Structures are given as structure tokens and as C-alpha cells.
Amino acid sequence: MKSLPSKLLFVLTIIFILSACSKNSTVPNPVIPRGSDSSSMSDVIYAVNKNYLGQNEQLGLDIYFPTNNSTVSKSPLVLFIHGGGFLDGNKKSAKNDCQVLASKGFTVASIDYRLGWTKDNTNPCTSNVDEALNAFYRAQQDARAALRFLVSKAATYSIDVTNIFIVGASSGAQIAMAIPYLTQDSAEVYYPGVSKNLGLLDNAGNNLKNTYSIKGIGCMWGSLINTSLITQQNAVPSIFFHGQQDGVIPWNVGYGYNCSNFPIGYGAKPLYDRLTSLGVAAVAHIDPLGGHGIYDSQFNEENIACFFNSVINGQAQTGFYTTKISSCN
Questions:
Q1: Of 134, 98, 91, which Cα lies nearest the Cα of 113?
Q2: DSSP β-bridge partners for residue 91
Q3: At how many degrees (to 10) do helices 95-103 and 297-312 cross?
Q4: What are phi and psi of 255, to 5 degrees?
Q5: CB of 105 within 8 A of CB of 66?
Q6: So what's the pLDDT on residue 71?
Q7: Alpha helix (H) ranges present in the chain?
Q8: What is the pLDDT of residues 98-122, one digit of tens each?
Q9: DSSP 3-state helix, strand, coil percentages of the chain (rounded to 5)?
């Protein structure tokens, strides 16, 4: 019998080897790179839902892995929620903040969420407030969908699900503050009939059933609809940043945009007071001369990371600061 041509024999040999490997081995989870500024993933789809225009929208997130040469097998997670008044911004706008947090040992997921409502930029008080409230509710659904997704991928992304934190700026901080405190029942009180139009808070965007518990919050110039939502049972250690001259979201108690047709918001001062009155750790950085947005990403995120680590270590800090001084002890 004639021998097989050498090229054909080589191909058959390779096929045999690959076949044997596929039968006797399993594909491992992706190895997450550490210790490099390039340790990130972009545009990971976590949910799909109807947007402001009634169109299906894919929602993505970017993941920044720890860049501090950590040798731990799992890292605490920070969900970062960008600002923009529920109209503007995207996950990329938080890149600097996320990189600072990643350099401190956190896996950080920056999310896009559904945007859109009718705002009068000339006179916000004549805006469509109902649409603004719907925009907040949709964003709340999306952030919760992202958390379910990330918990479902904890093994793939080396996430420590016992240490999950949230950071938000402006509208993102409003979303962050509501995640542990706004239940479906309280949502129906503050936003009557919203679930009939937009669905429930905790099953929108994806079909995942994963649960999570929030260990701490970083709230940058944000607010909560009412401090009474915070109880001894659900209170979460938090660090706040706010300017006393903020005309968008009040640092104390007041209306959004200083418009009485918008809901009352409770900013950094009453939130700090509520948590500390319950004996829960809280830090507030209040700039008496600051407006909507104070200090800078490096200062803010370094202090947030330090606060989160103090929570993880069981030595959570508490303090109220009115100058640009680090709260990191």
C-alpha cells in the first residue's frame, strides 16, 4: 500500500492530537490579568431593556481589574455609576475614577444605564418631572440588573461577593443610595403606578436571580428621597462628598434644581446624621464653598477606597470634614 503524502499525514496527526486534548481536558475560566494598567474589559453586555424612546437597548459595562499586583484570588467589587442628570454621560466618563479604585485593589465595573427625559435647560422648573422620575426608576432597574450579572460572573471575574460596594456621582449617586433602601413597596409610595408602566425593580433587563448585599456606598453629591428609608436593619456604611453651594442636588434638605415641583432630596448632611444616629459608620467631606462636584477624582476615590477597606477590615471610620483633608486613617 502506498504511504500517505507527508502533508496529509501531518494534518491528520494534528487533528488526532486536538481531538485527544478536547476529550481529556476542560477549558479553564479566563485568567484575569493583574498588575497592569491594561487590565480591563470593555462593552460587556449585562442587560437589554426598553429605553426612553420605547426601543430595545443593550446595556454594557466596562470592568477594571486590580492593578496593585495583588496576589489574592478574589477582589472586592465596586459598581461605579456615572452622573449626567439621567440625560448625559456614559461608562467611559468614569474611567479616571475607576482606575484609581482599581489601583487600590478593587475590581470596578462602570455601567451604562438607560437615559432620557424632557428637561427644560433654560428653566428646569418647567421640565417634565414625571419623566425624570421614570428615568430614575429605569436607571435603578439597570443598576440592580448589573449587580445580578456581576454576581453571576463572580468566578469568571474573580469577585469576592461578600464585599460589594457602590460608588456614584450626581444622578449616579442617587441611584447608588437607593439600591439598598428603595424596596418595591416604597417605590410604589413615592412613584405611584410606576411598576405598571416600567416593571418591577429587581427582575428587569435580564432573567438572573442572583442576590447580593451592599457592604458600603460612596456618594458624591447625591441624595436619597427620604432618610426614613434607612433603618437599623438596612443601614450601610457610607462616605459622602458634597458642596454647600450645590444648586442641583441639595447638600442638606431641599428640592432638586431648587424647584418645588421636584421631589425633596436628602443630601450628604442629613444622610450622614441619619447613619451616625444609628451607630453606623459614615464619613462626610463637605466643602462650604463648593458647588455640584467638589475636589477631584484622585482625592475622592483614594478616600473612598480607604473607607471601603476600613469597612472590610472591621474598623470602619466616622468623621465630618469641611476642608480638603484626607479622612484616611
A1: 91
A2: none
A3: 40
A4: -90, 145
A5: yes
A6: 66
A7: 6-24, 95-103, 129-152, 154-157, 171-178, 184-190, 194-198, 268-277, 297-312
A8: 999 999 999 999 999 999 999 988 8
A9: 35, 20, 45
Does the reported pTM lie above 0.70? yes
All domains in the chain, ordered by first residue: 35-321 (3.40.50.1820)
Q: Which three cell numbers stand for residue 268?
A: 450628604
DSSP calls for 90-121: -GGGGHHHHHHHHHTT-EEEEE---------S
Cell numbers for 254, please give them: 431641599
* Sole residue written with cell 465630618: 320
Distance between CA atoms of 139 and 156, rounded to whole angstroms? 25
Other Cβ atoms within 10 Å of 262 Cβ, number? 17
Q: Identify residue 131 by its one-letter amino acid code.
A: E
* Number of neighbours of residue 313 by Cβ within 10 angstroms: 8
| Side chain identity at residue 179, one-letter code | I
Task: Cell 476600613: give the residue.
Answer: 310
